[in-house]
Amino acid sequence: MSERGEEVLRLEGLRKSYNVGQPTETEVLHGIDLQVGRHDFAALIGPSGSGKSTLLNLLGLLDAPTAGDLFLLGESTRGMDDATRTARRASDIGFVFQFHHLMPGFTSLENIVMPLMVAHGRPSAGTIERGRSLLAAVGLADFADRKPGELSGGQQQRVAIARALITRPALVLADEPTGNLDTKTAADVFELFRRFNREFGCAVLVVTHDPRLSGVCDCTIELVDGRIVRDEKLL
To answer: Which pLDDT band, with edges at 50, 70 and 90, does 3 fall under?
Structure first.
């Protein structure tokens, strides 16, 4: 993949097995080498069962590899304890999922600033202003006081994208973020990722089954049977 600008992620010989030491031990990822640069906008594709979800969990520091290493902003994560991994995940990585996972009892603005509230407690005036700025950036400036149940699916996903960006992460991981949306809304949401990749300088890695979306990414990483079979910059 492209190595433009600052390196955000580097994987070296990453392996992941389940049921280690048992007769049913199974290796799902078989020595993954990968680099993601600050300005990369990449698609992760592959058939069901190829290991995409397992790899995404490792990239997001939600799970630890069995072997190999993952470097986040140049720092090895191999020796990190759970508390450090949690802190790095909260500060450096934003997550967007197919189902937005907004908290139904909170407003759009409160949902957006929630990651900073969890980390630092009661939000400051600066945090609130940053949340409002992100709401405006996703086209929902007038929806700050709306709760998720009062928003359309596309609007909820826009709030989820703003929430992922509130910490100004170096990397955004999006797992089928448009899979629950109609074609036009999906295209609009995808363009938001594009825009923030350019304007915020955050790397974006999108897991998608939609060839229309993967085809407009700058980079394509194809995973088959736990191995990367394609990692290329699109022309």
So the answer is: very low
